[in-house]
Amino acid sequence: MPLTNLYRNLTEGQRQFIKFSFVGGVGFIVDAGTFHLLIHFTPLGLVSGRVVSSLVFGMSATYTLNRYLTFRDRRSSAVLYEYLRFASANIVGNLLNIGTHSVLVETLPLFHAYPILGIVAGTAVGLVFNFTLSKYFVFRAGTPSTGR
What we know:
Layout: H1 2-8, H2 12-41, H3 46-70, H4 79-107, H5 109-113, H6 115-138
Helix pairs in contact: 2-3, 2-6, 3-4, 4-6
């Protein structure tokens, strides 16, 4: 199968980026779904709902999937410490993500009418930034898990 051969010929870093992007897609679904529920069933607005959906639900989902899928051979046995590193490393990328969303929904009528488009734009801004920090700061080769 050509796609399988193409994947096998990628470097480890390229395969990790593909997995990280896939995990990000799942995180997007968690983030956007939670955002939708929060803005329709709670008093949270577009910006505050996004902060909660992204930093609580989206981040927890992506950490868990990256730990067990993308960087499974590089994960630490100290889960809490690793999660805190993940959170601190990704907070800047997530704030860039949320900031992009906020600026767009507050300044452009199209994004205000369809705030999910702001989530798409914000997600794109944070992807490369978060991958780089996750690979080199959170899931470092020097901190392998002792048990699986």
